[in-house]
Amino acid sequence: MLKKLFKKSKEAEEIYAPINGEVVPLEEVPDPVFSQKMMGEGVAINSSEGEVVSPVAGKIVQIPDSKHAIGLETENGTEILIHIGLETVALNGEGFTPKVRAGDKVTVGQPLMSFDLEYIRENASSVITPMIITNSGDLNKDITQTEEKAAKAGETVLLTISGK
């Protein structure tokens, strides 16, 4: 039993890009909640297309009524928040079309949500989409960010979580 426990903690978990676009370090996101990592470690993408896919295999935990974000949990218990754009909660769901519901199981690359990129550009403060590991402080693991500058949804590994 102990071997199984230790083995699991040594396996790396890869988190893929949820969206196409330019990779932006979290520290450069123009919102202190994200840039100061108040919600956790992560990375952001300056969206170039209006589709979000699953960055992991797991399940959908939450999609708020405002549809501006998606909460997921991986099979290993990693909690991920994809926040589409900045100041998008004020759009009250306008421009967002969810493809999944809370409780759905998902695979890497599976479409989760489409959104009107131009509408968000015109009505929100930014199309930058942070992806946060909301329980990063509890994981006691190393989180490594990619050196890649361009993200291809469902293909580019953006974050790797590995045992310490």
Automatic annotation (TrEMBL):
Keywords: Kinase, Phosphotransferase system, Sugar transport, Transferase, Transport
GO terms, biological process: phosphoenolpyruvate-dependent sugar phosphotransferase system
InterPro entries linked: Dup_hybrid_motif, PTS_EIIA_1_perm, PTS_EIIA_component
Location relative to the cell: Cytoplasm
Main location: cytoplasm
Highest taxon listed in the record's lineage: Bacteria
GO MF entries: kinase activity
CC per GO annotation: cytoplasm
Gene3D superfamilies attached to this UniProt entry: Glucose Permease (Domain IIA)
Domain PTS EIIA type-1, first and last residues per copy: 31-135
PANTHER family (UniProt xref): PTS SYSTEM GLUCOSE-SPECIFIC EIIA COMPONENT
The protein's name in its UniProt record: PTS glucose transporter subunit IIA
Organism: Oceanobacillus halophilus
Lineage of the species this protein comes from: Bacteria, Bacillati, Bacillota, Bacilli, Bacillales
